[in-house]
Amino acid sequence: MDKIILIYPSLPGLDASNVILPLSLIYIATPLKDQFHINIIDQRVDNEWRHTLEKELHSGTVICAGISSMTGPQISGAIEAASIVRKLSPAVPIVWGGVHPSLTPQQTIKSELVDIIVIGDGEETFKELVNAIKNGTDKKTVTGIIYKNGKSTVTTPMREHFSISKIDNPAYDLVPVERYNFQPFWVGRKTLPMLTSRGCPMRCSYCYNTQFSHRTWTALSPEQTLTLINRLVQKYEITDLSLLDDNFFVDLQRVRGICRLIIDNHLNINFHNVNCRVDTIARIDDGFLNLLKRAGFKQLLIGMESGSNRVLSRIKKDSTLEQILTVSTRLKNAGIRSFCSFMAGFPFETIDDIKMTVLLMNRLLTENPDTTVFKLQIYTPFPGTDLFDYISKRGMRFPASLEGWATYHYDRINYNGFNKQHRTFLEDMNSYTIFLDRKLFNSLSKYLSLVSYLYSRILSFRINRGFYSCMYELYPLKILQKIRSWL
Fold first, then answer.
1. pLDDT on residue 38
2. What are phi and psi of 286, to 5 degrees?
3. Are the C-beta atoms of 380 and 68 separated by less than 8 Å?
4. Of the residues 162, 306, 382, 479, which has the fewest C-beta atoms closer than 10 A?
5. In terms of pTM, does the model score above 0.70?
6. Hey, where are the domains in the chain?
7. What is the pLDDT of residue 438?
8. CATH domain 182-486 topology
């Protein structure tokens, strides 16, 4: 049987003992599994992935090698894998897909390590492409790709977005599930990922989904969702599922239907990583919140982003500070735990805006200690988004090649435009706020956990009083943060 190699690149600094299944490749491979031998090489869990790749390239007929990558440091692992394929098997087409190639297809195709790009959702596109390669037919008939044709490139018409409901039984067994031991610190047990929907119709100006999925959204029906839950629970004997939906709550009637089916079928499942929005929770009543809790949705992941109404408006978040505070209280009263994420470093943001965000983070923890607040993330400009265009029009420069994008880092500012004081304050807050929620350090040794707890109190005191000067503890705390990343 002819072979397809799919490669999932690693992320530098990632804890290889606590990674999630490569669902993107599983979904891409599922429609092809009965026609081809699929080999998924995951750099995150296979320390010998180079040897594995070499072995696969030298055995059997390889139709193509597919590589998926986000914008940023994941590109480094993707480039290394593509280099190996090109060196050992130069005749094997290298197909790139995923977020970054889809956002920058015209630039990415210029790399000598890229032959073809699948743009956007790839389940149908990749299947048609693979068969065209195998049969030697014209790739022009495959919509949704860009490919090299001699010294020129060919871009085919855009394909309609794929409906995830067409794959209601993703082939998890294409990877060794037992090697993936994803245990969020707040769970303490192994969880499996699943998708019930894909995409998001909202207009957030920083989000890659506005360009990648063009604000479309597709979903499994409540009945399909229940079937998938039952299948995963029975096959893998788990009680915890992590939802990787971009926005689980787009269709509230669908959510209500899923909850009722779970309750009616007496399933005792805990759902984690359930993405929702502040304005959505603000619209639903307390009865709906109770239904969610009864069905196992006891934890919600909320992108609150900023404590400044001005910034929330500029990033088109369609929520307010007042809504955030109200929603936090309502979820607390409903017995649903909030997991809150925040972001700073927007081009129009001031230091005072950042201080308002950090103050809100601290306030949420003070008013509800069960809330989890992740550290302040630094805004990453994704090509094609409104904010990226805004920055570009003001003269900011971005990488001019695929290889250049590998230097993007999620914990630093990736574009110029801030003075030294602003940049230093933002990066300091990115480092400091990881200590704000001491629950994030509960898994460390008693000594490190105690140090983290003590500093979380000091940091809270500083934030409440706006005292950010003379923070000499920054350097030892950064060392502690590095130690945490090693453990």
1. 98
2. -65, -30
3. no
4. 479
5. yes
6. 3-155, 182-486
7. 78
8. TIM Barrel (3.20.20)
